[in-house]
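COMPLEX REQUEST
Ligand: tetrahydrodeoxyuridine
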Amino acid sequence: MSLDTLREAADRARANAWCPYSRYPVGAALEAEDGRIFAGCNVENAAYPSGVCAERVALGTAVAAGARRFARLVITSAAAEPTPPCGMCRQALVEFAPALDIVAITPDGRAASWSLAHLLPSPFTPSSLAHD
Ligand code: THU
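STATUS: Structure written out below.
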């Protein structure tokens, strides 16, 4: 999957962001290992903590469609610098894709990339629960 295709999917979702409180629209496109793309935007709420980030909307959409293995996440926003996902989204993503490649892109095309393993070292994972 080309980076441009993922960026376009993220931007299409970003155009639908519901963010009247922050006025900071975010788009995310999650590439599954089987090639499917799942997009999300941030969805805010008048009860502020009920809002959800674009990344977790994309992840939930993917899991609901049966996808559980992911290769790459592309995030688009209007930030001056490419921005990595917030801590809560890092935790949500590590459940399914500890080695996820994450790329953030600004409107003028500046990009930065990270591994989720770098952004969230020593994560709490399913195996941390150590059920017997
Ligand atoms: N937000 C995202 O959707 N993704 C990020 O990576 C950072 C922040 C949202 C949450 C909130 O709706 C708005 O951006 C401002 O924080």
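REMARKS: Strands lie at 26-32, 37-41, 70-77, 101-105, 111-115. The mean pLDDT is 97.
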